[in-house]
Design a protein that fits this description.
- The chain is an alpha+beta fold.
- It has one domain: Gcn5-related N-acetyltransferase (GNAT) (Aminopeptidase), CATH 3.40.630.30.
- Helix content is about 30%, strand content about 25%.
- The chain contains four helices and eight strands, in the order E-E-H-H-E-E-E-H-E-H-E-E.
- It has a five-stranded antiparallel sheet with strand order 1-2-3-4-5, sandwiched between helices. A three-stranded antiparallel sheet has the order 6-8-7, with helices on one face.
- A hairpin with an 8-residue loop joins strand 4 and strand 5.
- The radius of gyration is 15 Å and the shape is globular.
- It starts with 6 loop residues before the first strand and ends with a strand.
- About 30% of the residues are buried.
Length: about 170
Amino acid sequence: MPAAAPRFTQRLRLDPPHLSDVPALFEFMGDPAAMAHTHPRTSLRDCRRYVAVHERQRRRTGLAPWTIRERESGRIVGWGGLYRDVFDPGWGVEVVYFLHPDVWGRGYATELTEAALGFGREQGLDTVIGFAHPDNLGSRRVLEKAGFQHDRFLTEMQRHLYRRALTA
């Protein structure tokens, strides 16, 4: 599979991550407060492994989260996109987004999600799912704004499951 090219939105540049991105990603992915509604990475090594596992998946399937940069400054502000969760398989293709707290509330998660859905259509995907913790109202709003429909609450995961059809 050829190397993935960067993608651009109005304010963001989406790149396949490089190991040199990991320290900037770990700033928020390793922060328990920033990752309060999911699983923080426990160390720089853990974060490196997590990113590398997903990059191996990109080489196999073409799907994995991107490093999210502000187009204007080039600063790494997040990690997200479409993927099949290698640690909890069986759910299908999922949209995920982890953002630095400094950029929360700027609409970057919505912008990323729309770009990811466009990429999913290009890849011929039929459906994308998303999960949101009940207390993460921002994430739930992102999914709803992007046209995801609430499917059900998964008691065993303590998450809401959302679905979005990509075909008409």
